[in-house]
Write a structure and sequence with these properties.
Layout: E1 4-9, H1 15-18, E2 28-34, H2 38-48, E3 53-55, H3 58-62, E4 68-71, H4 78-87, E5 92-95, H5 102-115, E6 119-122, H6 129-139, E7 146-154, H7 158-162, H8 170-173, H9 176-179, H10 181-192, E8 196-204, E9 246-253, E10 258-264, E11 271-278, E12 281-286, E13 294-298, E14 310-313, H11 324-338, H12 346-363, E15 370-371, H13 377-384
InterPro entries: Gfo/Idh/MocA-like_OxRdtase_N, Gfo/Idh/MocA_oxidoreduct, GFO_IDH_MocA-like_dom, NAD(P)-bd_dom_sf
GO molecular function: nucleotide binding
Domain Gfo/Idh/MocA-like oxidoreductase N-terminal: 5-123
Length: 386
Amino acid sequence: MADLAIGVIGYGLRGSLARHAHRPGEGSRLVAVYDPDVAAHQRFREAFGSDVAATTDLDEFLKLDLDAAFVLSPDFLHEEHALALLDAGIPVYLEKPMAITTEGCDRLLRAAQQKGGRLYLGHNMRHMPFVREMKKLIDSGAIGEPKVAWCRHFVGNGGDFYFGDWHAERKYGTSLLLQKGAHDLDVLHWLCGSYASEVTAMGDRMVYSADQGGEEDPWWQGERNLKRWPPKSLTGLNPKMDVEDVSMMTMRLQNGILASYEQCHFTPDYWRNYTIIGTEGRIENFGNGEPGTVIRLWNQRHDYAAQGDHEVSLGEETGGHGGADPRIVAEFLRYVREGGQTDTSPVAARYAVAAGCAGAESLRSGSRPVRVPEVDPQVTAYFDQA
């Protein structure tokens, strides 16, 4: 079996993901990179060989003999880059979020449908062991019929990761409800087996301010700097910030389930917690794949019972994002070779963006309820049959 020739668009912070596709002699190898930053070319050559193609010209990249490509560029370029690959007939791994507008997502879905293209979305949380175990338990009937779902996202490095660069500006990402929330909204939809149909939200920028902008030595030194605390003490942030640092949204899903999502960028801890309540029990995660991560299930009557009735302990995983990154890359490569159904879904990725966009619209219009537009049934049918 000849190796698939894989290209990469954007070799930056998520470049480590593409490393899992470099398996010379085992089915795939990285052979090309497109990035306007020539320093990225050098890093790519050092990682994958001096003979790889490296270019700052997208048209030149598209003319290479590629079997597939990863789009790992900044969010506001996802639509442009994925559309170019689909137009060239190249199967696409598109990092989340799919695009920064609902309309952009719909253009991508339509392009894939019309061209018979293969579009794969990088919602790697669907491959995280704790999420998959929760999905398995819920689908098995462990809590009866799901009726309520909550997600609390404690974004402990919010100032560092999202208020120091382009993420802090609406024109580049719409809202952190979309950029950061796309993962959680997709997981809520997946665990509940349905998509948001109506959203109401509120939010504000309550801690970070443009006054925290200015020159500073880069804080990133290869590991998280936990000494950058408290949040109001951070400097070197983006003075053009106009996104919220705390957001809360409630949703009614198409199947009637009520769900909520809360996101805070100035909390001291960094993890996310999902709670699903059904007609016969409740399930909740503690930890996101770190050592000691557990899932607890309550299915008997109690007063206070912190440990629940059943506990599932998850073993330590290797690979980025709790072992999810190598798994999602393996699924993408299988999809390129064979097609067929995948655990991630372009349609689901679109609904995650649409819910985030609806949330941003609601919170910026006095918490007015906003309907989430549905996907064209013909487009949905194309991906269902893939």
